[in-house]
Structure formats: C-alpha cells, structure tokens
Design goal:
The chain is mainly beta and about 120 residues long. The chain is built from one helix and nine strands; from the N terminus they run ββαβββββββ. The protein has one helix spanning about 35-45; strands at about 1-5, 15-20, 45-50, 65-70, 75, 85, 95, 105-110, 115. The strands form four sheets. It has a three-stranded antiparallel beta sheet with strand order 2-1-3, covered by helices on one side. A two-stranded antiparallel ribbon has the order 4-5. A hairpin with a 6-residue loop joins β6 and β7 (about 95). The model has no long low-confidence stretch (mean pLDDT about 95).
Length: about 120
Amino acid sequence: MAHFAEIGVNNTVIRVIVVNNAELLDGDGVEQESLGANFCRDLFGGTWMQTSYNGNFRKNFANKSYTYDSTRNAFIPPKPFASWTLNETTCQWQSPVSYPDDGREYSWDEDSTSWKLAT
C-alpha cells in the first residue's frame, strides 16, 4: 500500500491516506507517484504527495500538521520548542542539550532549556 499526504496552505499536511499500489502502476507496471497523486486529486481535490511509511524518501512519514519543505524534499514535524534546531540530515528537531543516557525518563523544560527528571 502507498501513502499520500494532502498538502494545504503553507505546505502543511492536512491528512494522510492509503492508496492501493495498483493505482500507481503505469502501462509497463512501474509505480509512478504522479499517477497516485492524480488518483487522490480526482477523488478529493487538492494537492497530494507520496510519503514513505518507513522513511525511504522525503525523510519522514508525513502526519497531520507536518510541513512539506520542497527545498529539502522532506516532511518536517512541527517544531516542539523554540530552542530546538532542525537536524538537516534527518529533518527532525533536536534539543540544544542531549537527552540523558541513564535509563531514566525525562521531559524537556523550555524555561531552563534542559531535561528535567519526569515525575
């Protein structure tokens, strides 16, 4: 099964749907993203892009509220905190301080820009 994301205002993902792989096959039996996007557009209208459930392309599996960045050809999740920066390789947000590696559970505290032990 293929997955397609509907792209809305400001390149924000509106929804992700599953499409049968047969809808992507051209006359030679080769999958073509454009055929899947056209199938989605014909059914629902809008602009559609394929997303990879296992991250084989476009960096991340699209989810509602993610943004499609055409320069990076990637789906990027919403920025969780103002202090976090985008990892250009993974297109995931990273905290300015590494998550502690002591087996305990922490949550991010934006005011102190540090990890706090979860209670």
